[in-house]
Request: fold
Amino acid sequence: MAHFAQVSDGIVRCVIVVSNDDCGGGEFPASEQVGQAFIASLGLEGNWLQTSYHANFRGAYAGNGYTYDPASDTFVPPLSESELMS
Reply:
């Protein structure tokens, strides 16, 4: 299974699962474009970036509220409450 994060204004809004068959059965990064085309064919709009459940690429598995840093091509988790207070 492949996972795709919808990124808007640099923030991950949701993450969906797409069958490997709908991503061309390939490996990242080749699978990303095929998966994006499939997502668009479903009528889901926005910027969809592939994320790795095992954090094999893009630094971390994207979750709602994570940010995407295009300079480093990574997903960054939100700060914890304790980190915000320090």
